[in-house]
Amino acid sequence: MQRSARIKIDLDALTHNLSVVRQYSNKAKIIAVIKANAYGHGMLAIAKHLENKVDALAVACVSEALHLRNSGIDSVIVVLQGFHDQQQLDQCFDLNLEPVCHQAWQVDLLSQQGANKPLNCWLKVDSGMHRLGIHTSDVVTLSQKLSDSSAVNNVRLMTHFACADDTDSLLNQTQLDTFNECQENLEFEISMANSAAILSIPESIGDWVRPGLMLYGASPFSEKAASAFALKPVMALTSHIIAINSLSAGESIGYGSCWTCTRDTQIAVVAIGYGDGYPRHAESGTPVIIKGQRCHLVGRVSMDMITVDITDLDGSAEIGDEVVLWGEQLDISEISSCSTTIAYELLCNVGKDQ
Ligand SMILES: *Cc1c(COP(=O)(O)O)cnc(C)c1O
């Protein structure tokens, strides 16, 4: 089934963004995060491009890792949620994965396994996000249990920031201090930083960094564009014009008739909508690019179409002309802030079937 919306993936931009990660990360090893279909960019294509350029790949769950292994990816794979049961733990051994242990029962189960082929594993500490991670008071005991086990090779410690995208948040320093306090007398390698921390908290770089969003060329900060960090968008989302209509002042457009022309208006109908993952809540005024120029969405987003005011376009638009919804000339953050969401969600939504 071919709809009109297209995703273009620029792998050179991905390579470029990886070099930006390196600039910010000293000599830290890099775990490229490719969960959720590589943020909608297509997990396999991204994994193949990155496998020899980074130190590890990270996915959320064992089934994503299985897909990578079945497709011939043999890099180190970190499983961020770890195993959910014994069967998935068996798969971690079979597939040579590096699970994250974030609950004491996972540590117990893993450390009791037979020793034929020990795994590297990650112990995740809750330093203040209160989602995944063991309590700081259990770090010594549980890390010891893992490193004593013949089923485990290297143990590393990690934590995750709740508010790294908010550089003013006091929680960032609190989490850094909390994590450092519990790991500084232990000998393990550490990992703290996601994209936002890589770009804004130099003390969080540690031994391993875990970039996701920035690899794809988007900014994790609402108030700072990707270009401020020289990041280049990997994904472009395009479609084309399927109708052009002339409306008079006073006529309204689309479902709910919620946008009314204040002047005689040229409207281009573009074949993309929330059925393609374009956000339904994109408000009137959301930018799109036609003929290299910024125009604005007006009226409500439909399932398969949006309407765009092209009255002020320099030169005339025609049926079939390409429309860029985000990409090189249009930072996805602009679209996410016009639709009260984040770039992460937009990327995942359009790229579900990539
Ligand atoms: C998704 C994820 C990352 C990557 O986060 P970005 O904000 O996309 O850089 C890093 N670490 C963990 C534990 C994650 O779940």
Key traits:
single chain, 354 residues, alpha/beta, TIM Barrel, Lyase, Ornithine Decarboxylase, Chain A, domain 1, 8-stranded parallel sheet, 6-stranded antiparallel beta barrel, 11 helices, elongated, binds pyridoxal-5'-phosphate
Briefly characterize the structure.
The protein has helices at residues 11-24, 35-40, 43-50, 62-70, 86-94, 104-111, 139-148, 171-183, 195-200, 332-338, 343-350, and strands at residues 6-9, 29-33, 56-59, 77-79, 98-101, 119-124, 152-158, 189-191, 208-209, 235-247, 252-253, 259-260, 265-270, 287-290, 293-297, 306-309, 322-326. The chain is α/β, with parallel strands linked by helices and 354 residues long.
Give your account of this protein's structure:
This protein is an alpha/beta fold and 354 residues long. It folds into 2 domains: 11-218, Alanine racemase (TIM Barrel), CATH 3.20.20; 235-350, Lyase, Ornithine Decarboxylase, Chain A, domain 1, CATH 2.40.37. Helices cover 28% and strands 22% of the residues. The chain contains 11 helices and 17 strands. It has an 8-stranded parallel sheet. The longest helix has 14 residues, at 11-24. It is elongated, with a radius of gyration of 23 Å. The model has no long low-confidence stretch (mean pLDDT 96). Residues 33, 35, 80, 160, 194-196, 210-213, 220 line the site of pyridoxal-5'-phosphate.
